[in-house]
Amino acid sequence: MDPAEQPFLVLRDDDPRVAVLTAGGSRLVATSWGAVLRIAEPPQPRLLARLDAFVATARRAGAEVGELVRSGAAELLALQEANRLDYSHDPSMALPPGDLASTAAQWDDGGRVFGAHLDGLLVAATVMQVDGERAETLFTSVLRAHRRHGLGSAVKAAGVRALVAEGVRTLRTGGAGDNVASLAANRALGYEVDERWVTLTR
Ligand SMILES: CC(C)(COP(=O)(O)OP(=O)(O)OC[C@H]1O[C@@H](n2cnc3c(N)ncnc32)[C@H](O)[C@@H]1OP(=O)(O)O)[C@@H](O)C(=O)NCCC(=O)NCCS
Q1: Taking CA 123 as the corner, what is the angle to CA 120 and CA 126, rounded to the nearest 5 degrees?
Q2: Minimal-distance CA residue to ligand 1 atom 44
Q3: Does residue 71 have a pLDDT over 70?
Q4: Radius of gyration for the alpha carbons in the chain, expressed in angstroms and rounded
Q5: Measured in angstroms, how far is the CA atom of residue 123 from the centroid of ligand 1?
Q6: Which residues does 2 contact at the CB level (< 8 Å), separation at least 6?
Q7: Per-residue pLDDT, 6
Q8: Where are the domains of the chain?
């Protein structure tokens, strides 16, 4: 399809087409970012210690932090549904699947899920997809009542730690420009923003 006919176009912010399209009447409707965490060989001990500290803090507060297997799909779906309205609805951002079969499919093709339970309830989870030495976070979700307690960072740190132990060396993530919480949580873990994107519409 001709880019001019697409309802939304997502371009890197340094793409020369951004200026051309906005001069031609396209409007900026959202911004987004991509961030990377590169792991050295051998992995930086300070980084590993920082990741471990996030997990340890959550455990001291009573959370059970660890990897979820596919039989946890129903509780993952319940968590993601509880938060559905809180995800960015920027058209460049994917939303978590909304039914059990597609939630279970998040474990396919290198999918890994890490979560935190409090008193048996799944209160935080992150979904990552691994491809060889690379991994990408797809979604991270913390129940509203449990936010700002380090649980988002803890589940992500647990995931990064497990994947690094298996040889993953480049981890990517991203989010909507207006998602201050997501950006802050990722920066706290050591991710660095290296890409910025704009979503344009006519
Ligand atoms: C994004 C999200 C997962 C963060 O989880 P969380 O458990 O609240 O995050 P943490 O408590 O681990 O916070 C980590 C850092 O982010 C900061 N932070 C968290 N929420 C914040 C907010 N609303 N505003 C500013 N900073 C925030 C914390 O202060 C902390 O930074 P610090 O270590 O420098 O103090 C959670 O807000 C959420 O589920 N949002 C809805 C779904 C979503 O948007 N997911 C992300 C895209 S897939």
Answers
A1: 120
A2: 87
A3: yes
A4: 18
A5: 13
A6: none
A7: 60
A8: 37-190
Judged against a pLDDT cut of 90, whether residue 4 lies above it is answered with no
Query: Which residues does a 6 A CB cutoff place in the pocket of ligand 1?
Result: 83, 86-87, 139-142, 147-153, 175, 179-182, 184-185, 188
Give the distance (Å) from ligand 1 centre to CA of residue 40: 26
Instruction: Give which of 170, 166, 113, 163 is closest to 141, Cα–Cα.
Output: 113
CATH class in words for 37-190 = alpha beta
Average pLDDT value for the chain: 95
Strand order in the sheet with 121-131: 8-12, 192-201, 27-38, 170-176, 134-142, 121-131, 111-118, 64-68
To test the ligand 1 pocket, which listed residue (89, 128, 142, 180) has its Cβ within 8 A of the most ligand atoms?
142
- At 65, which amino acid appears? V
The pLDDT score that the predictor gives to residue 5 is 58
d(CA 137, CA 172): 6
Across 136-151, average pLDDT: 97
The reported pTM is 0.94
CB atoms within 10 A of CB 56: 14
- For 87-99, what is each residue's pLDDT tens digit? 987 888 889 999 9
Distance (Å) from CA 93 to ligand 1 centroid: 17
